[in-house]
Design goal:
The protein contains 5 helices and 9 strands. It has a single domain, classed as VC0467-like, CATH 3.40.1740. The protein is α+β, with helices and mostly antiparallel strands. It is globular, with a radius of gyration of 17 Å. Belongs to the UPF0301 (AlgH) family. This is UPF0301 protein SAMN05660330_01630.
Length: 187
Amino acid sequence: MTEEFNSLVGHFLVSTPQMPDPRFAEHVIYICAHNADGAMGLAINRPNSSITMAEILKGADLPVPQNTLPQIHIGGPVELESAFILYLSDYKTEHQLEVTSSVSLTRETKVLEDISLGKGPATYLFLLGYTGWGPGQLERELVEQGWLTLPANNEIIFNMADEQKWKAAAMQYGIDITTFEDEIGYA
């Protein structure tokens, strides 16, 4: 008999002030994959000011659309040269991971081409790199109180200013993350 696995796909990991790894201070990570083999997520509140979406498109020899383009994000410290597009699932492509019924993830270059032509997803984040955990690693980190797990909210992912996402992700459940402390209760 196999042990039941509680996947965190479609959830936020919100770093607490007790986060032992300073690289993840005030991070909100959206979990895209989680199973017994490990987990993969994308930091949704870490803008990258060293490169623009227009530069990404130009670098791929694609036209730059006239509409306002979103800021590039650092999805995490792993494979910073790898690009990911996280978007609302009203846009469909052949190679996509349906994270939830409303959010999908892809690395397909056709989506970048569609964005350049104004035919891509209307709402998306373009991210470089990702955050990954090996088997059991995320579960150990959760026990150590470095992360708070909460159901994700598309409004926070796609429509909120990056500097507000960390507090807002916790506050939607009545948690003031700035004063969050380890508390042990006994019944």
